[in-house]
User: Fold this.
Amino acid sequence: MSSAARTRHRSVRVLVAVGPMLAVHFALVAIPFVEFTLWSGLLMLAVSRFIGLGVTAGFHRCLTHHSFKTSRWFRLLLIVAGCAALQKGPLWWVAQHRLHHKHSDTADDPHSPVIKNFFHAHLGWLFTGDPTIPDPHGIRDLTKYPELVWLERLWVVPGVLVACACYALLGWSGVVYGYCLTAVLVLNVTFAVNSVAHLFGRRRFETNDGSRNNAALGILALGEGWHNNHHRVPNSARHGFAWYEFDETYLFIRVLARLGLVWNVKLPSTKVRAGKAGEPAHVSAQFRDAPSPVWHRHSHSSGGTLAQGCANHEGVDARSEP
Assistant:
């Protein structure tokens, strides 16, 4: 295949990959022609929680970092909700995020605003990077589940179904506001964690990257904005370490734990939660329990090694009830 043909082939793959994201953005041109009602706002709130928690609790804390355990059927429900956010398939999402933790704010980070620029970290990386899974070896713990492989191929379907449900409830107002506008907001808040939360905010821990705790994103991103905390203890189910760091996703996980739908919830130790700005962000390469998949670049005494496994980092407690 010639160089020009390869370029055209890659351009088509990128367009197919980001097409659904672009479609919901373009759909917003209909806003001046579609009435917004109280029911539209309530539907936006409901859909934002459904797809938003699908990303934060499902894609991120469950699949990527294994911050808690759950049944396959409930995990599938979370991942279906995450797919409806149109952030591509779950395996691609996990592969990119594990790569981000492995190479955070280095040249190999897929979306570092520190190395490149704000726009690249927020959106540009989707167009300049390879739309395929960058490191299949890094998600081998997930590819053994056929339901996840199936959703990776058909990740657009849940979004279409949610859009159809919104139309059934409120007609075009449901589609434009309840789904498209909501999906755009969730997409851009998620992207802001990659861009804003590596440039603006406070640093409680001196991690090996530019991650920061951003209060606005802490609320808007359902707890994901406490990003410096997350980079300190990646597989913690709780990102808001202090009482004033509101973490809606963690509250959701606590409710699920009370209902018996999730268990072995991993939390930061009291010592880590009490950490003050400037405290060394040492994370031991030794684990307390059986290995499971989490990727994190260790610092200082761990020799910069990459630990594969889903066991607890030092400073993380695994509990049945949060």
In short: The beta strands are 69-70, 205-206, 262-263, 265-268, 279-280, 293-297, 306-310, 316-319. The first helix runs from residue 3 to 26. Residues 17-319 form one domain.
